[in-house]
Amino acid sequence: MEFLVDKYADKLRRAGLCENPVVGGLDDVLVWNRGADPAWTARLTPVFGRMNISGLVFGCPAEPFATILEFLAAEYPDGFAPKDTETRTFLHELPVIHEFTPKAVADVLGRRKSVIIATPSVMGIAAHGSVTPEQGFVTFSSVCFSSFVLFFSEYLRHVRAGTVSPARRTAFEAAVAHLEPMVEQGPELACGPFADREAALQAMVEAGRATVEYRLVDSYFGNISCLLNQELLISQTGSSLDELPGLIDFCPLDGSSTACLTASSELTAHSQVYAKAGGRAILHGHPRFTVILSMDCAERGQNVTCEIGKLDLCHVKCPAKRYLSGEDGGVPIVPGEVGTGPNGLANTLPAAMTGRGAAAVWGHGLFTLGNTDFNQPFQALLDIENGCRRRYFATVDAAEGRR
Ligand SMILES: [Zn+2]
């Protein structure tokens, strides 16, 4: 357990989510990560007594997340529920409390995966894990992701409507000042075609790790696959893209094996993309500005006129032909639930990937396709996200300049 609490504290730091995380794990005894602030551990230890959990993660988020959460906690004192897929499928809602007591924390964590703690002296996130601290780490990073997406999405909507409050503007300017500089060039990854399984596996491990390092996905989400002869190699559901060794399945394309039960929930989507669009390598991440623009629709917002929008079903069956660049010929945006149902990614994604080799899924993320290895899909992931970030700020500037 000592190893695990240190590992996840370290991952939070490396992901730029929290500088001084506190990670607790309970076996026979309760252990905290090295360097955990004793003032926090004293306050959090009683939470274990109130809940049946084995892991607890707490931390004051790093910038820009601290600024973003402080604003959202004031704007939505009882909590909020962003529309992105990580929230919909995983967090459901992000509750907020305004007192930092073991009872208040345990009460919320008894029904939700996370709690945002906003008091005059503390701005923190707490999350629990029932078996190990890993779940707490995943939740912590998802809270940061979803809050980021909500905050920047709402700013865009308000700036267009001319309804940005002074507090929102101040928070936006502070958050923007803390954004990391844009990285234009991806790493040099292994070149294909891959000679055998071993070479393909190594290339997947390397590309998965780079996708997390370049912050194009939260560690635990996203997936990756490649096609080798008549076999599809794909990351397992719930595997961390930066820790793939041992978590990649080999799935014969003729469906002759049942060994693929643990394969990504998007296995069918991947195999259909290869069948329809060609290619040999698929990378899927959740880059933030891509997700923000995928949900930016003129039909949404204050005066929803679209019937699907009114029902809040854009992520399932948006009927419009939409593109990340706003123009035909750009990267298409499709709806699609995880899975193979009528509105599933397996049905919406393959056609969209054909031609352009990339498609965004509404509120969810980006899929990119390569002909031989992961260099092309990785660079596409990076280029498309950078393009979305530029377009986001150009749209904000234009809307602000107009008024
Ligand atoms: Zn995803």
- The percentage helix is 40-55%
Query: CATH first level of the largest domain: which class?
Result: Alpha Beta
Strand order of the largest sheet: 10-9-8-11-15-14-13-12
Q: Number of helical segments?
A: 14
For the record, give the distance between the C-alpha atoms at the N and C termini, rounded to a whole number: 56 Å
Structural class: alpha+beta
Q: Could you tell me the mean pLDDT?
A: 93
CATH superfamily annotation of the largest domain? Class II aldolase/adducin N-terminal domain
Work out the count of structural domains.
Answer: 2
Topology as a string of helices (H) and strands (E): HEEHEHEHEHEEHHHEEEHEHHHEEHEEH
In total, the number of strands is 15
Present as ligands are: zinc ion
What is the C-alpha radius of gyration, as a whole number of Å?
Answer: 21 Å
The CATH topology label of the largest domain is L-fuculose-1-phosphate Aldolase
Unreliable runs, pLDDT <50, ≥5 residues? none
Tell me the major beta sheet. 8 strands, mixed
